[in-house]
UniProtKB/TrEMBL annotation:
Recorded family membership: Belongs to the VPS13 family.
A GO biological-process term: protein targeting to vacuole
Coiled-coil zones: 98-138
Domain of life: Eukaryota
The keyword Metal-binding appears for this protein: no
InterPro entries: VPS13 (IPR026847), VPS13_N (IPR026854)
Alphabetized UniProt keyword annotations: Coiled coil, Transport
Domain Chorein N-terminal: 2-153
Entry protein name: Chorein N-terminal domain-containing protein
Organism whose genome encodes this protein: Adineta steineri
Length: 153
């Protein structure tokens, strides 16, 4: 039960921009096999907004999302993500009116996001360097696991 809530937290952390309201009842975790399965979830209508595609998501449904984490060989085997039953209803964007103020605002927001990412990276780098200087700092197991899972994805 604790693992389901913890798994829901991490999935919400990484996929929360794309999937609506993740519930621990939709989640099945087989810890020893390294399988995490998420069933019957809805996609957010804003999931693809940042990509500036010529269509919008009206509704989206995902029957099964399966994530396999190879715990025994985490450093060498890839993390696998399988998607089954992805249904998306798209609508074409009909507004082709060019708004220079909106365009300028969107470009400014993109630049600010990039600046925030760079600042966050610098902060984390400085924090890591400061922690590395102290003799008693060790990476936690969770930090290392998270790093290797995302690296092998």
């Amino acid at each position: 039960m604790v693992f389901a809530h913890l798994g829901a937290f991490f999935i919400d952390k990484f996929l929360g921009n794309y999937i609506e309201d993740i519930d621990s009842h939709q989640l099945k975790i087989s810890l020893w096999n390294g399988d995490i399965t998420l069933n019957n979830v809805y996609l957010k209508t804003s999931a693809l907004k940042d990509l500036n595609l010529p269509f919008d998501i009206e509704t989206g449904y995902l029957e099964k999302l399966k994530i396999h984490l190879p715990w025994k060989h985490l450093y060498v085997q890839p993390t696998k993500i399988e998607i089954e039953g992805l249904y998306i209803l798209l609508s074409r964007k009909t507004d082709v009116n060019y708004d220079p103020e909106k365009e300028e605002k969107d470009e400014y927001e993109k630049k600010m996001k990039q600046v925030e990412k760079v600042e966050q990276f610098r902060f984390e780098k400085e924090q890591y360097e400061n922690d590395a200087k102290s003799a008693d700092h060790k990476d936690t197991v969770v930090e290392r696991l998270q790093f290797y899972i995302l690296r092998n994805l």
